[in-house]
Amino acid sequence: MNNNTEFKRHRRLRSSNSMRAMVRETHLHVEDFIYPMFVVEGSNVKNEVPSMPGVYQVSMDLLLDEVKEVVELGIKSIILFGVPNEKDEVGTGAFIETGIVQEATRLIKRAYPEILIVADTCLCEYTSHGHCGVIHDHDVDNDESLQLLARTAVSQAEAGADIIAPSNMMDGFVKVIRQALDEAGFTNIPIMSYAVKYASAFYGPFRDAADSTPQFGDRKTYQMDPANRLEALREAESDVVEGADFLIVKPALSYLDIVRDVRNHFNLPVVAYNVSGEYSMVKAAALNGWIDEKSLVMEKLTSMKRAGADLIITYFAKDVAKWLKEEN
Ligand code: PBG
Ligand code: ZN
């Protein structure tokens, strides 16, 4: 009919699997993923987190089996969270040499020296009140908390952590941690800063998994207001100036505009944290048969990379690694 069409035939580039693969702009690789793990005290514990089907709290004696699975799937990196039995006002368990993350790090590194261990540097899993720093007058004391966070980071590096990931949202945490690491001789250990972390309802299931729900109040005086976009650039800017090596944006899915902003404004690897609530929602719908889990997860993770993320921290890492293998 019309040889001189006045419209574009976009469908030409969608005509087959091979054609679509040829023009695809965004790809997922197993190297993009960091898998979170929860380590508990005791032995022979493998507790499924009720709100996170498929995610477990694992005791030290069973940990290496879990890590073996991760390594065999080709995943290059894990992030460790500790769930201690004992908590106190200042979160001592976070920075002692025998802390749960420190012990787990030494154990894993001995068995699998090549896996990259990211240590989450915060106090909330270790404080009796569940806040990410020391409490004075019912609020978190910024500067006093910094000293404890710096000690935590150094003890994690001493245990063999490859990357320090401070998630506490105190002002100046990158500066103080960088200084402490350098003074302790860890000039080569990078900081993956939770630079842009919103006060989000999407963390609910994580707080079950890590037993870190604040006992009073909330985290709104230190985590960011979800309504703010320009503030994210200020947060990221100060972390860059203070010496961050990676920038995390968290949560991911409702904040892809922020991922794009951070990617466009800064020249550091950007990490999207696909958080617990984002995982649980998909799992719940999948278990009900309401959605196609694999397609949906691949679509979500692809959208995070399309938005500008270089790396993704996700509880789906093992599933994705399996799916990517099936495709090849
Ligand atoms: C704590 C911390 C949180 C997460 C990682 N580290 C949550 C919080 O602020 O309570 C969230 C992870 C997730 O929801 O998957 N500093
Ligand atoms: Zn915290």
From TrEMBL:
Domain of life of the native organism: Bacteria
Catalytic reaction equation(s): 2 5-aminolevulinate = porphobilinogen + 2 H2O + H(+)
Keyword Signal recorded: no
One GO cellular component, as annotated: cytosol
Record-listed Zn(2+) binding positions: C122, C124, C132
EC number(s) stated in the UniProt entry for this protein: 4.2.1.24
Zinc as UniProt keyword: yes
Chain coiled-coil ranges: none
UniProt-listed InterPro entries: ALAD, ALAD_AS, Aldolase_TIM
Sites where the protein binds Mg(2+): E235
Single GO MF descriptor: porphobilinogen synthase activity
One GO term (biological process): heme biosynthetic process
Catalytic residues in the record: K197 (schiff-base intermediate with substrate), K250 (schiff-base intermediate with substrate)
Record's keyword terms, sorted: Heme biosynthesis, Lyase, Magnesium, Metal-binding, Porphyrin biosynthesis, Zinc
Pathway assignment: Porphyrin-containing compound metabolism; protoporphyrin-IX biosynthesis; coproporphyrinogen-III from 5-aminolevulinate: step 1/4
Residue numbers binding 5-aminolevulinate 1: R207, R219
Binding-site residues, 5-aminolevulinate 2: S276, Y315
Reported cofactor(s): Zn(2+)
Pfam families according to UniProt: ALAD
Subunit structure: Homooctamer.
Function: Catalyzes an early step in the biosynthesis of tetrapyrroles. Binds two molecules of 5-aminolevulinate per subunit, each at a distinct site, and catalyzes their condensation to form porphobilinogen.
Similarity field: Belongs to the ALAD family.
NCBIfam families associated with the record: PRK09283.1
Name this polypeptide is given: Delta-aminolevulinic acid dehydratase
UniProt source species: Ornithinibacillus hominis
